[in-house]
Specification:
- The complex is a heterodimer of chains A (about 270) and B (about 180).
- Chain A is built from 13 helices and no strands.
- Chain A has about 270 residues and is an all-alpha fold.
- In chain A, helix 1 crosses helix 2 and helix 11 packs antiparallel against helix 13.
- In chain A, about 30% of the residues are buried.
- By secondary structure, chain B is α+β, with helices and mostly antiparallel strands.
- Chain B contains one helix and eleven strands.
- The longest helix of chain B has about 30 residues.
- Chain B starts with 5 loop residues before the first helix and ends in a 5-residue tail after the last strand.
- The chains are: A mainly alpha (about 270), B alpha+beta (about 180).
Chain lengths: ~270, ~180
């Protein structure tokens, strides 16, 4: 067939396609810019002209009810605000960090692995998490008789250095033979959470590369006693430096048994 | 069925065109119906807020969240964060115009309140604001409806709608689920 013939065959299709598209467009304009604003505006107490102008974008759409300026007093649970520069510097281990870490040896061990299980291991912990906790001790958002004084003696740069230092240290070795048989419901809490109680899975934030808030610490290879004590503190409101009650609201829903078993799980199970 | 001739191919194409057109039309009609009858529409409020310092200053600090009565205005402020709402239960009176204001410090969330026309995205950097009137009393479920991470399916809150005469704000104008 010649090109002229082909064009002749295409002609009705072209015309109909154009008509259909133009009519859909026309309907959308009439419906979206005229009918819908008028009908919905009536319910919001707007006259037709204002509603149409707002839909088209000539008048600002909001707020339909003016908000009073908030005179609420800020009650931050922490003073930490993250920035890309801060997070980048927390990934760089420097010799200065090792020097600052000498002050931590007595309680947290020579290599960041605590001899007393009441104290947390720091080796291999997320640098972002260590930074946040030290910052909170310094500002008083988290309370501990020893740590508040120590953190107040550190400047901002030292906190970054020591956090990066411990983050780069190798974690505590776990002896897999000491791991207890774990109850099924505890594994379910860790991996899937409990939707009926609104409990997200522990691992949705604390798992390896899980996502979630960036300041969440890793829990595996941590000391059982320390983990259990923190969960109890969150539950009883004794510790409240978690942003937007993320941990307080979780711990409040856990039973004593679950707290003990979860602490045990993270302290003894490999690779979580 | 084998398409042997030009005619067969054309026929199949037309069938599928008709099917797709029908599906798209049905979806558009559903949206138009929801817009006209249920008054479901995208919130028109554009208001920015810094997600990095949301918890440090101003309206969305922890102590200022929840329902608060200010003169004749009833406003509830809620933060959606991975993977919970704060507060996890809010009280609202029935048959009064109320305002819900949402913000998030982390990722995109979304909410709907079951059986009502409250439905909005919550986007970092913006305040999502919805005005509505609750007509049914009782505990309404408010789930996160935008996948926000591994804990998304456990992320939900409750909107407790109480009769107007049982809605009693404290001296500071606040109403919480615990106090009832």
């Amino acid at each position: 067939m010649k090109p002229a013939e082909l064009r002749e065959i295409d002609r009705p299709w072209r015309i109909w396609a154009s008509i259909i598209i133009v009519s859909i467009l026309a309907f959308s304009v009439v419906f979206g810019f005229l009918i819908l604003p008028i009908v919905q505006g009536r319910a919001a107490g707007l006259d037709a002209f204002t509603a149409i102008c707002r839909a088209v974008g000539i008048l600002p759409g909001s707020p339909a009810v003016r908000q009073p300026t908030s005179e609420a007093k800020a009650q931050p649970t922490t003073q930490v605000a993250w920035s890309t520069d801060l997070i980048r510097s927390l990934g760089q281990s420097t010799p200065a960090g090792a020097e600052v870490a000498q002050a931590c040896v007595a309680c947290h061990g020579e290599r960041g692995i605590a001899a007393d299980p009441q104290n947390p291991n720091l080796a291999g912990q997320s640098g972002v998490a260590i930074y946040k906790q030290l910052h909170d001790y310094k500002s008083g958002s988290r309370v501990h008789e020893v740590m508040n004084g120590i953190a107040q003696g550190l400047d901002g740069r030292q906190i970054i250095d020591v956090a990066a230092h411990f983050a780069a240290s190798p974690r505590r070795d776990l002896d897999p033979t000491t791991a207890e048989v774990v109850d099924e419901d505890i594994v379910r809490l860790v991996e899937r959470g409990d939707p009926a109680r609104g409990l997200p899975a522990c691992n949705s934030c604390h798992g390896f590369n899980a996502g979630g808030p960036m300041e969440t610490p890793t829990l595996s290879h941590q000391n059982r006693e320390y983990l259990a004590r923190q969960l109890h503190a969150f539950r009883s409101d004794g510790r409240r430096n978690d942003i937007y009650t993320r941990m307080r609201s979780v711990a409040a829903k856990l039973t004593d048994r679950e707290i003990d078993k979860l602490a045990n799980f993270y302290a003894t199970t490999l690779s979580y | 069925m084998r398409a042997d001739t030009e005619q067969d191919i054309l026929k199949t194409e037309l069938w599928w065109t008709a099917l797709v057109t029908a599906v798209v039309t049905a979806i558009m009609l559903a949206i138009i119906y929801a817009g006209l009858v249920h008054h479901i529409n995208p919130p028109s409020n554009i208001e920015t807020v810094d997600p990095k310092t949301l918890h440090l200053t101003g309206e969305f600090t922890e102590g200022n969240l929840g329902t608060r009565v200010d003169g004749s205005q009833i406003t509830s402020r809620i933060v959606a964060t991975q993977f919970a709402f704060q507060p996890q239960c809010i009280v609202m009176p029935a048959n009064r115009t109320v305002t819900l204001r949402f913000a998030t410090p982390d990722v995109i969330h979304g909410i709907l309140v079951t059986g009502t026309n409250v439905n909005t995205m919550i986007i970092p950097g913006y305040v999502s604001q919805v005005h509505t009137v609750f007509t049914k009393t009782g505990d309404l479920l408010m789930p996160c409806h935008e996948f926000c991470g591994l804990g998304h399916s456990q992320m939900w809150a409750t909107v407790r709608v109480v009769p107007e005469d049982e809605f009693k704000p404290g001296p500071d104008g606040r109403v919480t689920c615990d106090a009832r």
